[in-house]
């Protein structure tokens, strides 16, 4: 088999392209065995984590199969290359979103708890205003996500931690456009998010920090539930990736 070293910063997509190139050229035949993870890493000039992620994605969409103790094999019944490329891109992007949601949970549950402890009259007034913005934007998905952003930032500001607020702002700004890619308006249910937002505000108003944190986790879990329903492979991607050890 022939491989071209990847000179730039490695990504799983580039590793996949190199493997596909060998399939297309006939260097790798259906049923054939690939080099080990270590050998692929050296041949491509990339880290083993990138190779592992690429192998996991190709396994999920039906190109490869991994047999513990034996190695990585190209499947006999290969899917079409076009369909594979589209699905791979979706899985990798959705997998990234699951990590982002997990990060948001860690940050925002803590922020909601702090907000319940620290929010003053102005903070509570702003939360009510942002909540009204959410309630008034149910028919406009773009407007809803803008209002949702303002609501989350209001909770963050009430927690009085500028560093966490800046971190959260960056995360939300980078992910809302991706939400729209995977969650068209026919799949979103804004009323669920609004109801949990109402309960979060109520918990903050009554200084119930633990309740506010748990409700924030429920609120953020709505997106994760929808993503999982659309693309169940992505939810299992991280766990299955870790199990691919050659």
CATH superfamily of the largest domain: GntR ligand-binding domain-like
Low-confidence stretches: 6-10
| Strand percentage | under 5%
Shape: elongated
Number of domains as seen in the coordinates:
2
Which characteristics define this entry?
about 250 residues; Four Helix Bundle (Hemerythrin (Met), subunit A); two-stranded antiparallel ribbon; 2 strands; about 70% helix
Task: Give a description of the structure.
The protein has 246 residues and is mainly alpha-helical. The protein folds into 2 domains: 12-79, Winged helix-like DNA-binding domain superfamily/Winged helix DNA-binding domain (Arc Repressor Mutant, subunit A, Orthogonal Bundle), CATH 1.10.10.10; 92-235, GntR ligand-binding domain-like (Four Helix Bundle (Hemerythrin (Met), subunit A)), CATH 1.20.120.530. The protein has 10 helices and 2 strands, in the order αααββααααααα. A two-stranded antiparallel ribbon has the order 1-2. A hairpin with a 3-residue loop joins β1 (64-67) and β2 (71-74). Mean pLDDT is 82; it is low at 6-10.
């Amino acid at each position: 088999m022939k491989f071209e070293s990847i000179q730039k910063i490695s990504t799983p997509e580039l590793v996949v392209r190199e493997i596909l190139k060998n399939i297309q050229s006939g260097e790798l035949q259906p049923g054939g065995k690939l080099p080990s993870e270590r050998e692929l890493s050296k041949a491509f000039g990339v880290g083993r984590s990138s190779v592992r992620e690429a192998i996991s994605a190709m396994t999920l969409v039906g190109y490869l199969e991994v047999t513990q103790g034996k190695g990585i094999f190209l499947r006999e019944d290969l899917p079409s290359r076009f369909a594979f490329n589209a699905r791979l891109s979706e899985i990798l992007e959705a997998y990234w979103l699951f990590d982002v949601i997990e990060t948001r949970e860690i940050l925002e549950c803590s922020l909601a708890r702090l907000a319940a402890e620290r929010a003053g009259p102005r903070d509570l007034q702003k939360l009510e205003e942002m909540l009204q913005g959410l309630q008034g934007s149910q028919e406009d998905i773009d407007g809803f996500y803008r209002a949702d952003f303002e609501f989350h930032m209001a909770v963050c500001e009430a927690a009085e931690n500028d560093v966490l607020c800046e971190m959260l702002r960056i995360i939300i700004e980078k992910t809302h456009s991706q939400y729209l890619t995977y969650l068209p308006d026919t799949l979103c249910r804004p009323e669920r998010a609004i109801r949990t937002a109402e309960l979060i505000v109520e918990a903050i108003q009554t200084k119930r920090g633990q309740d506010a944190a748990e409700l924030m986790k429920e609120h953020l879990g709505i997106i994760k539930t929808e993503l999982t329903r659309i693309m169940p492979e992505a939810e299992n991607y991280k766990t299955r990736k870790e199990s691919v050890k050659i």
